[in-house]
Design a protein that fits this description.
Blueprint (H helix, E strand, L loop, with lengths): L2 H4 L13 H14 L3 H6 L4 H4 L1 E4 L2 E4 L7 H13 L2 H10 L25 E2 L2 E2 L1 H19 L13 E5 L6 H9 L9 E5 L4 H8 L7 E6 L6 H18 L5 H4 E5 L2 H7 L6 E3 L16 H28 L6 H15 L4 E6 L7 H13 L17 E3 L11 H6 L6 E6 L9 H18 L3 H6 L7 H4 L7 E6 L4 H22 L7 H18 L10 H17 L1
Parallel strand pairs: 5-6, 5-7, 7-8, 8-9, 10-11, 10-12, 12-13
Antiparallel strand pairs: 1-2, 2-13, 3-4
Helix pairs in contact: 2-5, 5-14, 7-13, 8-13, 8-15, 13-20, 14-20, 15-20, 21-22
The protein binds glucose-6-phosphate.
């Protein structure tokens, strides 16, 4: 019996709009909507110190949000009414809260210290986690020490991760984020797209004799990854001309030992994980092998410690001082009561340049859902679009719309007190921009202020900033492996909080599964030698015919 047959819908819960706190928030929104952050700050001189929370090295200033103490109280009450406490406990206990796939959701076990017991189907999973971590460390140490030799005896010095989605975005993001701590003698590349250009460009200057491919795929069936892995195998064999070379140039990260073996990778060179790790929650599992090779096993363990400390904070801190709970509730506040459709994440740290892309998957694949756990259509908004770019680049492009556009776009600004690259005044200037942007968004510039600058009347409306645009400021000390772990876990749990309020399953991804099968039929039609009988709509049929005609002309 497959997981899908075992899975059962949850009994219907009270729809969130019928919760008392939701109704109170609706009324309360009417009062808040007319208040300006300028007034909220003017009436409360300590607001900027009061509406803050701090834990595991992250200082969260949420004072520049359109909230009062009453708002926060009601949001926390909403979380309680929606059973957040029970849901958190259920997740940490290893209950199968991913009901549509009949799976536990235990990324928190990936960073649990040894000795902690987390039981799934009667088995404590923590020892297995540490066993894999130990094997990864052994392997990573060998590669870093130049002791993992390719087929010709040359030490491997290029590491290419092949994976997509959750098996790519985390590893790329973490490699970029922790580049400062990486072994600079090694070269890292990431291939994800089925577009052959991705593979071609990633490998064009690499010597196959010195290259190791880490094929990362939970299922080991994903079209893109399997296509790229087969191309990589051809690329290696074309140069080294012996199938025995595969064992020295390929390792796999997967839950599917059979498929790994079939591909030709020795299962001794496979690093496993488990069905209770979702793809987008897997960067701290064996999927992080490339990260561990880059920063070493100690750096990787520091990152896990950061994750774990945030897990503990999330599990134990009262909701009103709980960073993921606060962030999650604020997202719900803007999405459902202000109609905000997007949220920007703006890291002022160049090393976090892939963080917004990583968060896009984490947030949107998790909470882009339109039915509740019991299968009823929701009649309220769920997951907003997450997007962003590292500061200050965004300021010279899309910030205009955040400042003066017609929509409300809540922003998370992420800043650091120290940089790993202290050059002249750069870091002061960078940080000045974080603070100045949040100030400008909140307070704006009134017509009086604009006029006082000598602006002619006709130009005044163009130069007015209405302000009252909300933001969080997250301030950390330095971007270390530990800090990265805390930051990722913060967003993971914030997503969970949102999903709990919205009563949706943040851990399945049927939309992605659809994409995985759709292209198969069309791919067969594109490459068929005999003219295929096309049964699509007229648009798709015509596009296929056009492509086939171009292919015929090419050959
Ligand atoms: C993540 C999704 C999805 C997945 C990729 C790759 O939560 O399930 O992004 O990670 O489709 O899947 P494989 O690791 O199985 O190749």
């Amino acid at each position: 019996m497959g997981a899908m047959d075992r899975a059962r819908p949850a009994p219907p819960a009270t729809p969130v709009p019928e919760r008392p706190a939701w109704a109170r928030l609706r009324e309360h929104h009417g009062e808040i909507a007319t208040q300006h952050l300028r007034d909220l700050f003017a009436h409360d001189p300590h607001r900027g110190e009061r509406l803050t929370a701090e834990a595991v090295g992250i200082y969260l200033d949420y004072s520049k949000n359109r909230v009062t103490d009453e708002t926060m109280r009601l949001l926390v009450r909403l979380a309680e009414e929606c059973g957040l406490r029970d849901r958190i406990d259920a997740m940490f206990r290893g209950e199968k809260i991913n009901i549509t796939e009949d799976r536990a959701v235990l990324h928190v076990a990936l960073r649990a210290p040894s000795g902690r017991r987390i039981v799934v189907d009667g088995i404590d999973v923590v020892p297995a986690v540490h066993e894999v971590l130990g094997r990864m460390a052994e392997f990573a140490d060998q590669v870093r020490a130049g002791l993992w030799h390719g087929y010709t005896g040359k030490p491997v010095r290029n590491i290419v991760n092949i994976g997509i989605g959750g098996s790519d975005l985390g590893p790329v993001m973490a490699y970029e984020a922790l580049r400062h701590y990486s072994d600079r003698r090694l070269t890292f590349r990431f291939v994800s797209n089925v577009d052959g250009t991705d593979f071609a460009e990633a490998t064009r200057d690499l010597d196959p004799a010195e290259t190791l491919f880490v094929v990362s795929s939970k299922t080991f069936t994903t079209l893109e990854t399997m296509t790229n892995a087969a191309t990589a195998r051809d690329w290696v064999l074309a140069a080294l001309k012996d199938r025995a070379a595969i064992a020295r140039h390929f390792v796999a990260v997967s839950t599917n030992a059979e498929a790994v073996e079939q591909f030709g990778i020795d299962v001794m060179n496979m690093f496993g994980f488990w069905d209770w790790v979702g793809g987008r929650y897997s960067m701290d599992s064996a999927i992080g092998l490339s990260t561990m090779i880059a920063v070493g096993s100690r750096g990787f363990r520091e990152m896990l410690a950061g994750f774990h400390d945030m897990d503990e904070h999330f599990r134990t801190a009262p909701f009103g001082a709980n960073l993921p709970v606060l962030l999650g509730l604020l997202t719900v506040w803007y999405t459902d009561f202000f109609g905000a459709q997007t949220q920007a994440v703006l890291p002022y740290e160049q090393y976090l340049k892939r963080f917004p892309a990583y968060l896009q998957q984490l947030t949107m694949e998790s909470n882009g859902k339109h039915v509740t756990l019991s299968g009823a259509a929701v009649d309220y908004a769920t997951g907003p679009v997450f997007w962003g770019e590292p500061g200050t680049n965004g300021q010279h492009s899309f910030y205009q719309l955040i400042h003066q556009g017609t929509g409300l776009i809540p922003c998370d600004f992420i800043g650091f007190l120290h940089t790993r690259n202290p050059l002249g005044a750069h870091h002061d200037l960078l940080t000045a921009n974080v603070f100045a942007q949040t100030e400008a968004l909140a307070f704006g510039k009134t017509p009086e202020q604009v006029r006082a600058e000598g602006t002619p009347d006709w130009l005044v409306p163009h130069r007015v900033f209405e302000g009252n645009r909300p933001s969080n400021t997250l301030l950390l000390d330095t971007l270390t492996p530990y800090a990265l772990g805390t930051l990722v876990a913060l967003y993971e749990h914030s997503v969970f909080v949102q999903g709990t309020i919205w009563d949706i399953n943040s851990f399945d991804q049927w939309g992605v599964e659809l994409g995985k099968v759709l292209a198969k039929t069309v791919a067969a039609e594109l490459s068929a030698t005999a003219e295929p009988e096309l049964r699509h709509d007229s648009s798709t049929n015509a596009l296929i015919r056009r492509y086939r005609a171009a292919a015929r002309a090419r050959s």
